[in-house]
Protein backbone atom coordinates (compact mmCIF):
# COMPACT_ATOMS: atom_id res chain seq x y z
CA UNK A 1 0.00 0.00 0.00
CA UNK A 2 1.30 3.47 -0.82
CA UNK A 3 1.48 6.37 1.64
CA UNK A 4 -0.76 9.42 1.67
CA UNK A 5 2.11 11.55 0.39
CA UNK A 6 2.94 9.14 -2.46
CA UNK A 7 -0.74 9.09 -3.46
CA UNK A 8 -0.89 12.86 -3.48
CA UNK A 9 2.27 13.07 -5.61
CA UNK A 10 0.97 10.51 -8.11
CA UNK A 11 -2.27 12.46 -8.52
CA UNK A 12 -0.41 15.76 -8.99
CA UNK A 13 1.90 14.18 -11.58
CA UNK A 14 -1.17 13.43 -13.75
CA UNK A 15 -2.50 16.98 -13.66
CA UNK A 16 -1.45 20.28 -15.18
CA UNK A 17 -2.72 23.78 -14.49
CA UNK A 18 -5.84 24.77 -16.43
CA UNK A 19 -6.09 27.70 -18.84
CA UNK A 20 -6.84 31.26 -17.78
CA UNK A 21 -9.80 33.60 -18.35
CA UNK A 22 -10.87 36.99 -17.08
CA UNK A 23 -13.61 37.81 -14.62
CA UNK A 24 -15.15 41.14 -13.60
CA UNK A 25 -13.57 42.37 -10.36
CA UNK A 26 -16.92 42.29 -8.58
CA UNK A 27 -17.22 38.57 -9.31
CA UNK A 28 -13.64 37.60 -8.58
CA UNK A 29 -13.99 36.53 -4.95
CA UNK A 30 -12.33 33.16 -4.30
CA UNK A 31 -10.75 32.94 -7.75
CA UNK A 32 -7.04 32.26 -8.29
CA UNK A 33 -4.95 34.87 -10.12
CA UNK A 34 -3.40 33.55 -13.33
CA UNK A 35 -1.05 36.50 -13.78
CA UNK A 36 0.59 39.08 -11.56
CA UNK A 37 -1.22 42.35 -10.86
CA UNK A 38 1.20 45.26 -11.24
CA UNK A 39 0.53 48.90 -10.41
CA UNK A 40 0.49 51.11 -13.50
CA UNK A 41 0.63 54.36 -11.50
CA UNK A 42 1.51 55.63 -8.02
CA UNK A 43 -1.17 55.45 -5.37
CA UNK A 44 -2.06 58.04 -4.38
CA UNK A 45 -1.10 59.58 -7.73
CA UNK A 46 -0.03 62.84 -6.01
CA UNK A 47 0.35 64.17 -2.46
CA UNK A 48 -3.21 64.35 -1.09
CA UNK A 49 -4.91 65.58 2.04
CA UNK A 50 -5.88 62.92 4.57
CA UNK A 51 -8.44 65.21 6.24
CA UNK A 52 -11.02 67.91 5.54
CA UNK A 53 -9.40 71.24 6.39
CA UNK A 54 -6.88 73.71 4.99
CA UNK A 55 -3.61 73.12 3.15
CA UNK A 56 -0.89 75.44 4.42
CA UNK A 57 2.87 75.96 4.35
CA UNK A 58 4.02 74.70 7.76
CA UNK A 59 6.51 77.52 8.18
CA UNK A 60 3.58 80.01 8.07
CA UNK A 61 1.98 78.57 11.23
CA UNK A 62 3.16 81.20 13.73
CA UNK A 63 -0.18 82.19 15.30
CA UNK A 64 -0.92 85.03 12.87
CA UNK A 65 -3.84 84.75 10.36
CA UNK A 66 -3.53 83.24 6.87
CA UNK A 67 -5.50 84.13 3.77
CA UNK A 68 -7.80 81.47 2.30
CA UNK A 69 -7.40 81.36 -1.50
CA UNK A 70 -9.54 78.84 -3.35
CA UNK A 71 -10.31 75.19 -2.88
CA UNK A 72 -8.92 71.77 -3.83
CA UNK A 73 -11.58 69.07 -3.96
CA UNK A 74 -11.27 65.32 -4.43
CA UNK A 75 -11.41 65.02 -8.22
CA UNK A 76 -10.63 68.69 -8.96
CA UNK A 77 -7.36 70.02 -7.63
CA UNK A 78 -6.19 73.59 -7.12
CA UNK A 79 -3.53 74.36 -9.71
CA UNK A 80 -1.99 77.63 -8.46
CA UNK A 81 0.95 77.13 -6.10
CA UNK A 82 0.54 78.35 -2.54
CA UNK A 83 2.20 81.73 -1.96
CA UNK A 84 3.54 82.62 1.51
CA UNK A 85 0.79 83.10 4.13
CA UNK A 86 -1.90 81.58 1.94
CA UNK A 87 -4.14 78.59 2.70
CA UNK A 88 -6.35 76.49 0.41
CA UNK A 89 -9.52 74.71 1.49
CA UNK A 90 -9.04 70.95 0.98
CA UNK A 91 -11.23 67.90 1.28
CA UNK A 92 -10.10 64.39 2.20
CA UNK A 93 -8.37 62.83 -0.80
CA UNK A 94 -7.90 66.16 -2.64
CA UNK A 95 -4.54 66.99 -4.24
CA UNK A 96 -2.27 69.22 -2.14
CA UNK A 97 -1.50 72.53 -3.90
CA UNK A 98 2.17 72.95 -4.80
CA UNK A 99 4.09 74.49 -1.89
CA UNK A 100 1.70 73.21 0.81
CA UNK A 101 3.15 70.69 3.27
CA UNK A 102 0.59 70.49 6.06
CA UNK A 103 -3.18 70.26 6.57
CA UNK A 104 -4.88 71.94 9.50
CA UNK A 105 -8.17 70.15 10.21
CA UNK A 106 -11.24 72.31 10.00
CA UNK A 107 -12.12 71.68 13.67
CA UNK A 108 -8.95 73.62 14.61
CA UNK A 109 -9.60 76.81 12.64
CA UNK A 110 -11.88 79.81 12.83
CA UNK A 111 -12.70 81.58 9.59
CA UNK A 112 -13.47 85.25 9.39
CA UNK A 113 -14.20 86.22 5.79
CA UNK A 114 -11.08 84.99 3.99
CA UNK A 115 -8.99 85.08 7.15
CA UNK A 116 -7.98 81.80 8.81
CA UNK A 117 -6.95 81.65 12.46
CA UNK A 118 -5.44 78.57 14.07
CA UNK A 119 -3.37 77.77 17.11
CA UNK A 120 -1.90 74.66 15.41
CA UNK A 121 1.92 74.64 15.28
CA UNK A 122 4.14 73.76 12.33
CA UNK A 123 4.28 69.98 11.78
CA UNK A 124 5.48 69.28 8.20
CA UNK A 125 3.47 66.62 6.32
CA UNK A 126 0.88 66.33 9.10
CA UNK A 127 -2.36 64.96 7.56
CA UNK A 128 -0.74 64.58 4.12
CA UNK A 129 -0.55 61.26 2.23
CA UNK A 130 2.53 61.32 0.07
CA UNK A 131 2.33 60.30 -3.61
CA UNK A 132 3.05 56.56 -3.93
CA UNK A 133 2.84 55.99 -0.17
CA UNK A 134 0.48 53.03 -0.69
CA UNK A 135 2.39 51.66 -3.69
CA UNK A 136 4.49 52.81 -6.63
CA UNK A 137 3.95 52.42 -10.38
CA UNK A 138 5.63 49.21 -11.52
CA UNK A 139 5.33 47.53 -8.10
CA UNK A 140 3.98 43.97 -8.19
CA UNK A 141 0.89 43.99 -5.97
CA UNK A 142 -0.32 40.39 -6.25
CA UNK A 143 1.47 37.25 -7.41
CA UNK A 144 0.07 34.67 -9.81
CA UNK A 145 -1.55 31.84 -7.82
CA UNK A 146 -2.97 34.22 -5.20
CA UNK A 147 -6.48 33.39 -3.99
CA UNK A 148 -8.56 36.55 -4.15
CA UNK A 149 -10.15 37.56 -0.85
CA UNK A 150 -12.20 40.78 -0.62
CA UNK A 151 -9.18 42.96 0.23
CA UNK A 152 -7.16 41.56 -2.69
CA UNK A 153 -10.10 42.12 -5.10
CA UNK A 154 -10.22 45.69 -3.84
CA UNK A 155 -6.46 46.11 -4.41
CA UNK A 156 -6.70 44.80 -7.99
CA UNK A 157 -9.57 47.23 -8.60
CA UNK A 158 -7.54 50.08 -7.04
CA UNK A 159 -4.81 49.24 -9.57
CA UNK A 160 -7.38 49.85 -12.31
CA UNK A 161 -7.90 46.21 -13.31
CA UNK A 162 -11.56 45.79 -14.24
CA UNK A 163 -11.27 42.32 -15.73
CA UNK A 164 -9.05 40.23 -13.52
CA UNK A 165 -6.98 37.41 -15.07
CA UNK A 166 -7.86 34.21 -13.21
CA UNK A 167 -7.54 30.47 -13.66
CA UNK A 168 -10.59 28.76 -15.07
CA UNK A 169 -12.61 27.04 -12.35
CA UNK A 170 -11.88 23.31 -12.31
CA UNK A 171 -14.96 21.37 -13.44
CA UNK A 172 -15.22 18.49 -11.00
CA UNK A 173 -17.77 15.82 -11.92
CA UNK A 174 -19.06 13.83 -8.94
CA UNK A 175 -20.59 10.39 -9.34
CA UNK A 176 -22.15 8.40 -6.50
CA UNK A 177 -22.83 4.71 -6.95
CA UNK A 178 -25.15 2.21 -5.32
CA UNK A 179 -28.78 1.04 -5.38
CA UNK A 180 -29.11 1.94 -1.72
CA UNK A 181 -28.86 5.66 -2.44
CA UNK A 182 -31.61 8.21 -3.10
CA UNK A 183 -31.16 11.94 -3.47
CA UNK A 184 -32.03 14.10 -0.45
CA UNK A 185 -35.67 15.17 -0.82
CA UNK A 186 -36.70 11.86 -2.38
CA UNK A 187 -38.45 9.11 -0.44
CA UNK A 188 -36.09 6.30 0.58
CA UNK A 189 -37.15 2.65 0.63
CA UNK A 190 -36.68 0.77 3.90
CA UNK A 191 -33.11 -0.25 3.02
CA UNK A 192 -32.11 3.00 1.36
CA UNK A 193 -30.21 6.04 2.65
CA UNK A 194 -29.76 9.55 1.35
CA UNK A 195 -26.83 10.44 -0.87
CA UNK A 196 -24.81 12.71 1.42
CA UNK A 197 -21.57 12.25 -0.48
CA UNK A 198 -22.39 14.26 -3.60
CA UNK A 199 -23.67 17.38 -1.78
CA UNK A 200 -20.78 17.25 0.71
CA UNK A 201 -18.16 16.98 -2.01
CA UNK A 202 -19.91 19.67 -4.09
CA UNK A 203 -19.58 22.00 -1.11
CA UNK A 204 -15.90 21.15 -0.79
CA UNK A 205 -15.35 21.74 -4.52
CA UNK A 206 -17.05 25.15 -4.21
CA UNK A 207 -14.93 26.04 -1.19
CA UNK A 208 -11.74 25.48 -3.19
CA UNK A 209 -12.99 27.54 -6.14
CA UNK A 210 -14.18 24.75 -8.41
CA UNK A 211 -17.38 24.06 -10.26
CA UNK A 212 -19.05 20.83 -9.11
CA UNK A 213 -21.09 18.89 -11.67
CA UNK A 214 -23.31 16.24 -10.11
CA UNK A 215 -23.63 13.13 -12.26
CA UNK A 216 -26.24 11.79 -9.84
CA UNK A 217 -26.32 8.18 -8.69
CA UNK A 218 -25.32 5.22 -10.85
CA UNK A 219 -27.22 2.06 -10.03
CA UNK A 220 -25.42 -1.20 -9.30
CA UNK A 221 -25.63 -2.13 -12.97
CA UNK A 222 -22.70 -2.11 -15.42
CA UNK A 223 -24.64 -0.32 -18.16
CA UNK A 224 -25.73 2.45 -15.82
CA UNK A 225 -22.17 2.87 -14.56
CA UNK A 226 -20.87 2.94 -18.18
CA UNK A 227 -23.33 5.69 -19.12
CA UNK A 228 -22.48 7.66 -16.00
CA UNK A 229 -18.74 7.51 -16.75
CA UNK A 230 -19.39 8.70 -20.31
CA UNK A 231 -21.36 11.67 -18.97
CA UNK A 232 -18.22 12.96 -17.23
CA UNK A 233 -16.89 14.00 -20.65
CA UNK A 234 -15.70 17.62 -20.52
CA UNK A 235 -14.87 17.58 -16.81
CA UNK A 236 -11.33 18.33 -15.62
CA UNK A 237 -11.58 15.68 -12.94
CA UNK A 238 -14.07 12.94 -12.10
CA UNK A 239 -14.58 11.97 -8.48
CA UNK A 240 -16.46 8.77 -7.78
CA UNK A 241 -17.92 7.85 -4.41
CA UNK A 242 -18.34 4.21 -3.39
CA UNK A 243 -17.63 0.98 -5.19
CA UNK A 244 -13.97 1.38 -4.29
CA UNK A 245 -13.69 -1.70 -2.16
CA UNK A 246 -14.28 -5.41 -2.82
CA UNK A 247 -18.11 -5.75 -2.72
CA UNK A 248 -19.90 -8.15 -5.14
CA UNK A 249 -22.16 -5.43 -6.52
CA UNK A 250 -19.53 -2.77 -7.07
CA UNK A 251 -19.19 -2.46 -10.86
CA UNK A 252 -17.42 0.84 -10.94
CA UNK A 253 -13.82 -0.37 -11.00
CA UNK A 254 -14.58 -3.19 -13.46
CA UNK A 255 -16.37 -0.89 -15.90
CA UNK A 256 -13.60 1.70 -15.54
CA UNK A 257 -11.07 -0.95 -16.66
CA UNK A 258 -13.32 -2.30 -19.45
CA UNK A 259 -13.66 1.23 -20.82
CA UNK A 260 -9.87 1.46 -21.14
CA UNK A 261 -9.15 3.18 -17.83
CA UNK A 262 -5.59 2.98 -16.50
CA UNK A 263 -5.22 2.45 -12.77
CA UNK A 264 -2.43 4.55 -11.25
CA UNK A 265 -2.86 3.44 -7.65
CA UNK A 266 -5.30 1.54 -5.49
CA UNK A 267 -5.36 1.37 -1.71
CA UNK A 268 -3.63 3.94 0.44
CA UNK A 269 -2.16 3.32 3.88
CA UNK A 270 -4.65 5.74 5.49
CA UNK A 271 -7.55 5.52 7.93
CA UNK A 272 -10.23 6.27 7.06
CA UNK A 273 -9.98 5.87 3.29
CA UNK A 274 -7.92 2.78 2.56
CA UNK A 275 -9.89 1.85 -0.62
CA UNK A 276 -9.17 5.22 -2.32
CA UNK A 277 -7.85 4.83 -5.88
CA UNK A 278 -6.79 6.96 -8.82
CA UNK A 279 -6.53 6.46 -12.55
CA UNK A 280 -7.09 7.97 -15.97
CA UNK A 281 -9.88 7.33 -18.41
CA UNK A 282 -8.39 8.67 -21.63
CA UNK A 283 -7.39 12.20 -20.63
CA UNK A 284 -9.81 12.35 -17.70
CA UNK A 285 -8.24 11.93 -14.23
CA UNK A 286 -10.51 9.82 -12.01
CA UNK A 287 -10.26 9.89 -8.23
CA UNK A 288 -12.13 7.04 -6.56
CA UNK A 289 -13.19 7.77 -2.99
CA UNK A 290 -14.60 5.18 -0.58
CA UNK A 291 -18.36 5.19 0.00
CA UNK A 292 -18.41 5.62 3.75
CA UNK A 293 -19.35 9.29 4.12
CA UNK A 294 -16.59 10.24 6.57
CA UNK A 295 -14.00 8.33 4.52
CA UNK A 296 -15.14 10.20 1.39
CA UNK A 297 -14.90 13.62 3.05
CA UNK A 298 -11.55 12.95 4.72
CA UNK A 299 -9.94 11.54 1.59
CA UNK A 300 -11.35 14.45 -0.40
CA UNK A 301 -9.56 16.80 1.99
CA UNK A 302 -6.33 14.81 1.58
CA UNK A 303 -6.42 14.19 -2.19
CA UNK A 304 -9.13 16.22 -3.95
CA UNK A 305 -8.22 19.60 -2.43
CA UNK A 306 -4.52 19.40 -3.44
CA UNK A 307 -5.54 18.09 -6.88
CA UNK A 308 -7.80 21.10 -7.42
CA UNK A 309 -5.09 23.45 -6.18
CA UNK A 310 -2.73 21.91 -8.72
CA UNK A 311 -5.28 22.53 -11.51
CA UNK A 312 -5.57 26.11 -10.24
CA UNK A 313 -1.80 26.59 -10.44
CA UNK A 314 -1.54 27.57 -6.78
CA UNK A 315 1.94 27.57 -5.25
CA UNK A 316 2.45 24.85 -2.61
CA UNK A 317 -0.68 23.16 -3.93
CA UNK A 318 0.26 19.93 -2.22
CA UNK A 319 0.80 21.41 1.24
CA UNK A 320 -2.22 20.49 3.34
CA UNK A 321 -1.71 23.23 5.90
CA UNK A 322 -0.93 21.33 9.09
CA UNK A 323 -0.80 23.28 12.34
CA UNK A 324 0.69 22.32 15.69
CA UNK A 325 -1.68 21.79 18.61
CA UNK A 326 -1.35 20.73 22.22
CA UNK A 327 -3.46 17.78 23.32
CA UNK A 328 -6.14 18.55 25.91
CA UNK A 329 -6.71 14.82 26.48
CA UNK A 330 -4.66 11.66 25.91
CA UNK A 331 -4.62 9.83 22.56
CA UNK A 332 -4.46 6.08 21.97
CA UNK A 333 -1.56 4.47 20.15
CA UNK A 334 -2.12 4.33 16.37
CA UNK A 335 -2.29 1.27 14.13
CA UNK A 336 -0.22 0.77 11.00
CA UNK A 337 -2.11 3.24 8.78
CA UNK A 338 -1.67 7.04 8.84
CA UNK A 339 -4.83 8.05 10.69
CA UNK A 340 -6.90 11.22 10.63
CA UNK A 341 -8.70 11.39 13.98
CA UNK A 342 -11.70 13.67 14.10
CA UNK A 343 -11.18 16.22 16.86
CA UNK A 344 -12.26 19.55 18.26
CA UNK A 345 -10.12 22.54 19.09
CA UNK A 346 -11.69 25.17 21.35
CA UNK A 347 -10.18 28.03 19.43
CA UNK A 348 -7.48 28.53 16.84
CA UNK A 349 -4.58 28.09 19.25
CA UNK A 350 -6.32 26.13 22.01
CA UNK A 351 -5.91 22.52 23.11
CA UNK A 352 -7.30 19.75 20.93
CA UNK A 353 -9.02 16.50 21.84
CA UNK A 354 -10.34 13.56 19.85
CA UNK A 355 -14.10 13.02 19.56
CA UNK A 356 -15.35 9.73 21.00
CA UNK A 357 -17.04 8.63 17.74
CA UNK A 358 -14.51 7.71 15.06
CA UNK A 359 -16.64 5.43 12.85
CA UNK A 360 -16.10 6.19 9.16
CA UNK A 361 -19.86 6.27 8.61
CA UNK A 362 -20.68 8.70 11.46
CA UNK A 363 -21.23 12.02 9.74
CA UNK A 364 -22.71 13.80 12.75
CA UNK A 365 -19.36 13.41 14.51
CA UNK A 366 -17.50 14.71 11.44
CA UNK A 367 -19.79 17.72 11.27
CA UNK A 368 -18.92 18.52 14.91
CA UNK A 369 -15.21 18.16 14.30
CA UNK A 370 -13.12 21.27 13.73
CA UNK A 371 -9.81 19.52 13.03
CA UNK A 372 -8.35 16.25 11.84
CA UNK A 373 -5.56 15.07 14.13
CA UNK A 374 -2.83 13.39 12.12
CA UNK A 375 -1.33 10.20 13.56
CA UNK A 376 1.59 8.62 11.76
CA UNK A 377 1.69 4.83 11.32
CA UNK A 378 2.45 3.07 14.63
CA UNK A 379 2.57 6.37 16.56
CA UNK A 380 2.66 5.71 20.32
CA UNK A 381 -0.03 6.77 22.80
CA UNK A 382 0.25 10.42 23.81
CA UNK A 383 -0.59 12.26 27.04
CA UNK A 384 -2.41 15.55 27.45
CA UNK A 385 0.07 18.37 26.97
CA UNK A 386 1.97 16.68 24.15
CA UNK A 387 1.97 18.19 20.67
CA UNK A 388 0.23 16.85 17.55
CA UNK A 389 -0.28 18.02 13.97
CA UNK A 390 -3.82 19.05 13.05
CA UNK A 391 -5.55 19.94 9.83
CA UNK A 392 -8.26 22.59 10.29
CA UNK A 393 -11.58 21.59 8.70
N1 LIG B 1 -14.29 -7.18 3.18
C1 LIG B 1 -14.00 -5.88 3.15
N2 LIG B 1 -14.98 -5.01 3.31
C2 LIG B 1 -14.71 -3.69 3.31
C3 LIG B 1 -13.39 -3.24 3.16
C4 LIG B 1 -12.38 -4.19 2.97
O1 LIG B 1 -11.20 -3.83 2.82
N3 LIG B 1 -12.73 -5.49 2.96
N4 LIG B 1 -13.13 -1.91 3.22
C5 LIG B 1 -14.05 -1.16 4.04
C6 LIG B 1 -13.78 0.25 3.94
S1 LIG B 1 -12.34 0.77 4.68
C7 LIG B 1 -14.63 1.11 3.37
S2 LIG B 1 -14.31 2.80 3.45
C8 LIG B 1 -15.81 0.70 2.67
C9 LIG B 1 -15.76 1.40 1.32
O2 LIG B 1 -16.39 0.69 0.38
P1 LIG B 1 -16.79 1.20 -1.06
O3 LIG B 1 -15.99 2.33 -1.48
O4 LIG B 1 -16.79 0.04 -1.94
O5 LIG B 1 -18.22 1.80 -0.79
P2 LIG B 1 -19.63 1.14 -0.89
O6 LIG B 1 -19.57 -0.30 -0.52
O7 LIG B 1 -20.21 1.51 -2.15
O8 LIG B 1 -20.30 1.92 0.28
C10 LIG B 1 -19.87 1.86 1.61
C11 LIG B 1 -20.89 2.55 2.51
O9 LIG B 1 -21.00 3.91 2.17
C12 LIG B 1 -22.33 4.24 1.80
N5 LIG B 1 -22.29 5.23 0.69
C13 LIG B 1 -21.75 5.02 -0.52
N6 LIG B 1 -21.90 6.14 -1.27
C14 LIG B 1 -22.54 7.02 -0.52
C15 LIG B 1 -23.00 8.35 -0.73
N7 LIG B 1 -22.80 8.99 -1.90
N8 LIG B 1 -23.64 8.99 0.28
C16 LIG B 1 -23.85 8.36 1.47
N9 LIG B 1 -23.43 7.11 1.72
C17 LIG B 1 -22.80 6.46 0.76
C18 LIG B 1 -22.92 2.96 1.37
O10 LIG B 1 -24.31 2.98 1.46
C19 LIG B 1 -22.27 1.99 2.34
O11 LIG B 1 -22.96 2.05 3.57
O12 LIG B 1 -15.85 -0.69 2.52
C20 LIG B 1 -15.50 -1.42 3.71
N10 LIG B 1 -15.73 -2.80 3.47
O1 LIG C 1 -11.26 3.52 5.29
MO1 LIG C 1 -12.76 2.92 5.41
O2 LIG C 1 -12.61 4.38 4.73
O3 LIG C 1 -11.86 2.82 6.96
O4 LIG C 1 -14.07 3.16 6.43
Automatic annotation (TrEMBL):
<dbReference type="InterPro" id="IPR001453">
    <property type="entry name" value="MoaB/Mog_dom"/>
</dbReference>
<keyword id="KW-0808">Transferase</keyword>
<dbReference type="InterPro" id="IPR036688">
    <property type="entry name" value="MoeA_C_domain_IV_sf"/>
</dbReference>
<comment type="similarity">
    <text>Belongs to the MoeA family.</text>
</comment>
<dbReference type="InterPro" id="IPR005111">
    <property type="entry name" value="MoeA_C_domain_IV"/>
</dbReference>
<dbReference type="InterPro" id="IPR036135">
    <property type="entry name" value="MoeA_linker/N_sf"/>
</dbReference>
<dbReference type="GO" id="GO:0061599">
    <property type="term" value="F:molybdopterin molybdotransferase activity"/>
</dbReference>
<dbReference type="InterPro" id="IPR036425">
    <property type="entry name" value="MoaB/Mog-like_dom_sf"/>
</dbReference>
<dbReference type="Pfam" id="PF00994">
    <property type="entry name" value="MoCF_biosynth"/>
</dbReference>
<dbReference type="InterPro" id="IPR005110">
    <property type="entry name" value="MoeA_linker/N"/>
</dbReference>
<dbReference type="GO" id="GO:0006777">
    <property type="term" value="P:Mo-molybdopterin cofactor biosynthetic process"/>
</dbReference>
<comment type="pathway">
    <text>Cofactor biosynthesis; molybdopterin biosynthesis.</text>
</comment>
<dbReference type="InterPro" id="IPR038987">
    <property type="entry name" value="MoeA-like"/>
</dbReference>
<dbReference type="Pfam" id="PF03453">
    <property type="entry name" value="MoeA_N"/>
</dbReference>
<keyword id="KW-0501">Molybdenum cofactor biosynthesis</keyword>
<dbReference type="Pfam" id="PF03454">
    <property type="entry name" value="MoeA_C"/>
</dbReference>
<dbReference type="GO" id="GO:0046872">
    <property type="term" value="F:metal ion binding"/>
</dbReference>
<protein>
    <recommendedName>
        <fullName>Molybdopterin molybdenumtransferase</fullName>
        <ecNumber>2.10.1.1</ecNumber>
    </recommendedName>
</protein>
<feature type="domain" description="MoaB/Mog">
    <location>
        <begin position="173"/>
        <end position="310"/>
    </location>
</feature>
<keyword id="KW-0479">Metal-binding</keyword>
<keyword id="KW-0500">Molybdenum</keyword>
<comment type="function">
    <text>Catalyzes the insertion of molybdate into adenylated molybdopterin with the concomitant release of AMP.</text>
</comment>
<keyword id="KW-0460">Magnesium</keyword>
<dbReference type="GO" id="GO:0005829">
    <property type="term" value="C:cytosol"/>
</dbReference>
Amino acid sequence: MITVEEARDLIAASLSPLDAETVAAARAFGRTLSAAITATRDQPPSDVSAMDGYAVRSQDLDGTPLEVRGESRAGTGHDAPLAPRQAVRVSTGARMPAGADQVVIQENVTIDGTSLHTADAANPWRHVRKAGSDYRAGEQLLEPGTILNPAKVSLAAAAGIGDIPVMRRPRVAILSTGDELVMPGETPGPDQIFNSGTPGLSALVFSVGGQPLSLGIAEDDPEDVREALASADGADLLVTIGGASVGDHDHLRRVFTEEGGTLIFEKVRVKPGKPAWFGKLGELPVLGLPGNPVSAMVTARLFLVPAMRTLLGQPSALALGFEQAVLGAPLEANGDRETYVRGVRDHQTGPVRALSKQDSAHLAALANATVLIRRLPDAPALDAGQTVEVLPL
